[in-house]
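Something for you to look into today, if you have time. Just paste the record in under my message, thanks.
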Amino acid sequence: MTDLLTPTRKQVADWARLSQKKFRRESGLFLIEGEVCVREALKAKAVDCLLVLSTESDRWELLTREHPKLLSYKINSDVFQRISQVEATQGIVAIGKQFKLPARKSGITLLCEQVSDPGNCGALIRVADFFGVSELILGSGSADVWNEKVVRGSMGSIFHQPVREVEDVSVVIKKWKGDSIALVAHGGEEVSAKLQLKSPKLLVLGHETRGLTSELEESCTRKLTLTPQGQAESLNLVTAAAVFCYALSPVPSPR
């Protein structure tokens, strides 16, 4: 059996405060919940320490033994509930170290004016990672990327996908060298494989409910629309992003 440490009261208090954005920013740490995200964080060497629920310590013994240099703590259910935001816990949480990934070499960058819902933000990171997007750029008012719901919603993609937060997305659009493409509900060109677009391509999405502001829409070089074929009037932000990324991505080479 691997020896697990007992945390101090201050450590527990600090870990519980990671649900607050201010403390996350000050400490440079964040909460990682769920087996998939914890394992991806370990691969990325983004883990500060592991927290194991005392009743689940046997289940996670192999994982803690695989990382002997990493501090691992055993905590009871009351302490675990203070720290973890998940009701149906898997009995393991990691304290992560915030990091910055360099942009990928890719023909597509995804920019979102505002993604305030943490679940949508996490899912958007996963979509960007799936399509190998160069960067996901999030505007002011978006959910904090180190929010535990964002991390969990990304299903581990936050450890692979470059994400950048900016105050003014209009500056990014104005300085863009290739085509900046606004995704609009009406009045744009229909998405087609025949579209001739200049790389690098910047896909610009608006707020989850309000869409793009008219100023940002007009500052883009192109506007694209996806016409519904059924009764639904629109797609949610994450689904729309996935459709457009797929439509505008180069055909992948066979693996």
Remarks:
- The chain is about 30% helix and 20% strand.
- The longest helix spans residues 118-130.
